[in-house]
Amino acid sequence: QVQLVQSGGGSVETGGSLRLSCTASGYTSSLRCMAWFRQAPGKEREGVASIYATRTNYSDDSVRGRFTISQDIAKNILYLQMNSLEPEDTAMYYCAATPRSFCYLAEHNFHYWGQGTKVTVSS
To answer: For residue range 88-110, what is the model confidence (pLDDT) as tens digits?
Structure first.
C-alpha cells in the first residue's frame, strides 16, 4: 500500500506563487508515475502535470511555463511549483501515483491519491 499526504496550498493574489508538496510512504518503490490533478468548483477533476523519472508532461499551455512538477526521489516527495497564479487556477489540488509505467494523465490511470489541498487565487 501507498499513502500520499499533501501539504502547502492556501490563498494568494493574482500573480502570486505557491508550492504544493506530496509525501509518499509505504510501498513507494512500486511507484513509477506521479501527477497532480485539480478540481475547480463545479467542474470535473482534470490532470495538471505528471512526472515519470525525469520526464515531465503538462496538460496544456495554460499551465506549461507557469507550473513546474518535480520530485525528490530520495525523500519520496512530489512538488508542484505554481507561479503567476490566476483566479482560474482556484481549485482543490490532488497528487496521485501509480505503479504503471504508462504515465497517461487521466484519473483512471492512478491508483493512489492524496487528501487534496485547496488553492484560492483572488483577483
So the answer is: 999 999 999 999 888 889 999 99
Evaluate the CA torsion angle 1, 27, 70, 5 in order and state its sign: positive
pLDDT band at 83 (very low <50, low <70, confident <90, very high): very high
Compute the chain's Rg from CA coordinates.
13
The C-alpha atoms of residue 24 and residue 20 are separated, in whole angstroms, by 13
Q: Roughly how many angstroms between the first and final C-alpha of the chain, as a whole number?
A: 41
Whole-number Cα distances in Å, 117 to 14, 18, 21:
18, 11, 10
Type of residue at 118: K
Provide the pairing of β-strand 10-13 with 117-122.
parallel
pLDDT given for residue 53 in this prediction = 87
Give the Cα separation of 59 and 90 in Å (integer): 16
